[in-house]
Specification:
It is built from 3 helices and 2 strands. With about 100 residues, the chain is mainly alpha-helical. The protein has a domain at about 5-40: Histone, subunit A, CATH 1.10.20. It has a two-stranded antiparallel ribbon with strand order 1-2. It starts with a helix and ends in a 7-residue tail after the last strand.
């Protein structure tokens, strides 16, 4: 798939990018090369390839999910500027 000048101008407009006149030709060539590469990758036979999240067969060591700290909620809320129904009250940021 080859792009032309109008395609690059439209893409720049949609992306709200200012592209100078002298850069349009370079962008046209670069984007066309990228699309050709994607087409080339799309033509690869991947029927027997198993999808994977990571190329290495690494396993994350997990630890037991256990509480290790004492609940100090009352202590922290006692020094908070404003608390209501167990929640911290903060100033409104968005009107």
């Amino acid at each position: 798939m080859a792009l032309d000048r109008s395609d690059v101008e439209k893409i720049a407009h949609l992306a709200r990018l200012a592209v100078s006149e002298e850069d349009i030709r370079a962008y046209t060539c670069s984007l066309t090369d990228i699309l050709k590469f994607v087409e080339q990758m799309d033509s690869a036979d991947v029927v027997d390839v198993t999808p994977m999240a990571h190329p290495l067969d690494a396993v994350q060591r997990l630890r037991e999910d256990e509480v290790r700290e004492v609940n100090q909620r009352e202590k922290f809320q006692s020094i908070a500027p404003q608390v209501e129904a167990g929640l911290y009250l903060v100033p409104r940021v968005i009107e």
